[in-house]
Amino acid sequence: MKIYTKTGDAGMTGLFGGQRVSKDSPRVEAYGAVDELNAVLGVVRALLGAEDALQPALARVQSDLFVVGADLATPQVEGKKASSFVPRMDDTRIAQLEAWIDSAETELEPMRSFILPSGTAAASQLHFARTVCRRAERRVVGVAHAEEISDTVRIYLNRLSDLLFVWARLVNQRAGVSETPWRASGEGE
């Protein structure tokens, strides 16, 4: 199979089920943001190194994001069942994200102020991943205004952005890097 098919040269792409849509359609924008998030998490994993304790969880999240992308690329057409081979996100994955958040928070000091997204290279990339995740969530919400989208996908992305924030803090703490509190303009200068 060749990597290039030329079927998208006119600005159209195919969804699962065969429907052709513009590459700038809200649905494509949504799963494109999820794909971008997955790539950013790949950078995080490279920065952390193979032996880091977060590697297995990050790999699982990356796999989950393929499920989210497949779900978003498969419209729920009335009167037709989605292809049986298309995986769908379920509540157990959301529960896992919440468990990881709870576990990480046991190692962290409670927050007393907003913090600037910074620190180690890996933590900074996790903060970046969080913002890409929030954008993906906004795109999913936008699609949901016009088409049926799984609530589980939206909830998963919302919870994932929380997890990425907590992991950024955790990576900094484990590296001995202090968080930078946000200060209003002129405050403390």
What can you tell me about this protein's structure?
The chain is mainly alpha-helical. It has a single domain (21-101, 117-177), classed as Hypothetical Protein Ta1238, Chain: A. It has 5 helices and 4 strands. Strand 1 (12-14) and strand 2 (20-22) form a beta hairpin. Helix 1 (26-48) packs antiparallel against helix 2. The longest helix is centred in the C-terminal third of the chain and has 26 residues, at 121-146. The protein is elongated and about 50 Å long. The mean pLDDT is 87.
Task: Name the descriptors.
single chain; Hypothetical Protein Ta1238, Chain: A; two-stranded antiparallel ribbon
- Our count of domains comes out at 1
Q: Catalogue the unreliable spans.
A: none
The first-to-last residue Cα distance is: 61 Å
Give the CATH class.
Mainly Alpha
Shape: elongated
Structural class, by secondary structure, is mainly alpha
